[in-house]
Amino acid sequence: MTTIHIAGVAMTKFGPNLGATVKSLTAEAVAACLADAGVTPDAVQAAYFSNTLQGLLEGQLSIPGQIALRNAGVEGVPIVNVENACASGSTALWLACQHLRSGAADIVLAVGVEKMVFDGEAQRATVVRAFEGGMDVSAGDEALNDLLRLGAGVDGRSGDGHRTRFMDIYAALCRAHMARFGTTQRQLAIVAAKNHDHSVHNEKCHFRKAMTVDEVLASRPLGYPLTVAMCSPLSDGAAAVLLCTDAGLKKLQGQAPSILIKACELTSATTRDFADFEAHVARRAALTAYDRAGLGPDDIDVAEVHDAAAFGEIFMTELLGFCAMGDGGPLAERGETRIGGRIPVNPSGGLESKGHPIGATGLGQIYELTQQLRGTAGARQVSGARTALQENSGGLLGIEEGAAVVTILQRQY
């Protein structure tokens, strides 16, 4: 089997950056990633470029990667444009891994970028509308109504202000989980407060303000049980990862410890019953990743999971096998997912704090976990971290995400 190394990683600060463009964010991330690996752009033999919104917002269609990467000094090599909802960045990583495994190249770049924050009202409205396209547009109301029925009887205060349909979907999924397992709004707030605490130590986060559980609960309500502080903001940002085979590693001059990709698995949604959690798209990706890596949940030292809302972290800790189904809320209450706990989750601050520039999000998770495995995460370092897991999902098809990627990384000693 081909050994795949992470040779270089980088991410920009996530958050509002009105002066930035897709080109400038891409150039910043790529330059830092290549510098981390100790190479120049001509070392890149192929590239996968992740972005979801530029076509809608700027009309830049067809070859956005070729245009943005030329500005970063990468041209003349195979460049593939990738869009796969919120899992786009991780899908670019998955494709880069396939490229290396095929033997077609020894050094491949995955880069993701999103420009989501604008002054103009029309562009802001377009960003919000874009989330509607992350599901079957011919059956959006039907999908939401199906989820609402699953959580019938779980009620609480909802806000009257702006929110996206995806936040209504997250809220409906959460109420279904509450109805089945007794998960509480306070448990969601514990997860969000934990992630806001972690963010204080991450200079690349959109938000870096510690919050108490009560402050999270008191923030503006969205669809019950979610509040604004439990949900990810719209952000600008980019991230890049340079991958290589053993042969490619010999060509590089970087001095950082080698991090191996033990598994990177992409799955898509299936038609299933809500209660068939073993068939959940992320659960299937995780089981395949564990099998490929020859590892299990107990071998994971640190994880970054897709928490566009705090419920996502609770649900994913269950689906990834860190606890039993229904125990994700109590797991957080016991402090087991904090830095210093049994299985630290989202030491970066998670999407609630770090931000969610869609095309860059998954690669930003890989950046964080690489720092953890290198032992360079500073005050948010998970002691002794050697094996890490990333989960990144996106879109909605029926009652689950349309795509999910689970990646397992391990430090090579």
From TrEMBL:
GO terms for molecular function: acetyl-CoA C-acyltransferase activity. Residues 271-398 form the Thiolase C-terminal domain. InterPro entries: Thiolase, Thiolase-like, Thiolase_C_2, Thiolase_N. Gene3D superfamilies: 3.40.47.10. It comes from the Bacteria. Residues 5-211 form the Thiolase N-terminal domain. This is Thiolase family protein. It comes from Sphingorhabdus pulchriflava.
